[in-house]
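Researcher: Please translate sequence to structure tokens.
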Amino acid sequence: MVPTIFCILFVLVTVVLLLKRAPAMAKAYPAELIFVAGYLAFFACYNFDGIARSLPRYALPVYPFLLFSAQNWLPKRRLVLWILVIASALLASADLVGFKTVFGFAVHG
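Model: Translation complete:
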């Protein structure tokens, strides 16, 4: 559930950033902008109740374009990037196979 919420927030924020930069990007990358807009519009209009639950998987093809639109706000230091990559991989795997399986202890709350 948490990865789905983060994915939806990530897509929404980066789409807003993409729209701010759309005029400049449309000149430099017209095909890519049309692909991202069409792909995300398809999911916004798709008639499937579980689309929000499956959005992290379906949005994979547009993540590179969305990250490109947010490149000014991404960290530049490799250490920070590696820590974020490892943390996101651990959290994603904990969501799939269970927190105790990944980290070795259970969280009660």
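Researcher: Any highlights?
Model: The first helix runs from residue 2 to 20.
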